[in-house]
Amino acid sequence: MRLPADAVLMVVDAESDPREAADSRIAALIAAWRAEGLPLVHAGRRSATPPRDGETVIASEAMSAFVGAGLEEKLDEFGATTLVFCGSLATQALEATARHAGDLGYRVFVVADACRAAEAVDLGGRAWPAEDVRTLALARLQGEALTIVDCATALQAAATAKARQRRKAGLTHGQ
Asked: What is the pLDDT of residue 125?
């Protein structure tokens, strides 16, 4: 996976529980984006990830963070072409926002092991374990114009996203 220097990390409805594997991966992604100076957006109806100064927060009352929240305009300011999603699948906001992003023409990645879900009960009263809910949600997303990746792949891509810019700046300074 290769990310452009405008790749935005979209942290959607993330909660903060360091005991959860997905949450520690979300924290690792946030740290990597910050270290590389890549754009970072905290979006959704609720988010417990603390944004830093200069990071964008999009509060949305709709399923998709693109609806009525100014997200697309903010992404245009970044010149964003690629979005990398992590966060909560339990609220359906991540799914809706990722699908909407694909419909708008963004290149979309969803970091599977940096997404969490909650147990769900179907209309027949059957309880579905959180891992089954997460796996099914990701399978539905994979069939669309999105790419499912793991955290290790996303972290490696983030670490090299600005490599070409750094090399070019190094060549310029050396001449």
From this structure: 97
Domain boundaries, the chain: 8-174
CA–CA gap between residue 84 and residue 108 (Å, rounded): 6
CA distance 33 to 31: 6
The half-sphere exposure of 54 on its side-chain side, counting CA atoms within 13 A, is 6
Instruction: Choose among 1, 36, 13, 5: nearest CA to 109.
Output: 1
pTM for the model: 0.90
Instruction: Give the class (CATH, top level) of 8-174.
Output: alpha beta
| Residues in the chain, pLDDT under 70 | 17-18, 46-49, 171-175
> Is residue 171 exposed (0-12), middle (13-18) or buried (19+ Cβ within 10 Å)?
exposed
